[in-house]
Request: fold
Amino acid sequence: MPTLSLHSSPYLSFFANFIDDRSNINTAKLKELDPMKTEQPETATAVFLQTVSAAITQLKRKLQKDYQQTYPELREIFHLVLDEEEAKAWELSLFPHLLLPDLVEAHVATLGLQPPMPRHSDMVVPHRFFEIPNYQSAPALCG
Reply:
């Protein structure tokens, strides 16, 4: 049985040039030039917090506008309610924009007020809760 050497086959010698035993790698330089290096966690966290802060600011404006249209005389009260509930939402979650509408609605309910009716024009898909499906049989001609 013939033995194979690295240089007896053109394919083996080709791949032998790419074998790396990592003995000649400078580890200090390797740490410096890490190809898998991603954003620093501090940078990613800062970007995340900026994004969430922008989302909550936009949401507060929308909620203020909705409540102000329903109760124009209580503008300042809703401003205070929104600020208070935003602080609670930040304490409860890193995603305060998801909690804020419900917290504000609960606070408004304790004041004996109703939340404003949502405008369906700004919804992506209008709800169809009140539609009752009509399942009627359809005659089919067989044969």
Observations:
- Residues 63-116 form one domain.
- The chain has a mean pLDDT of 75.
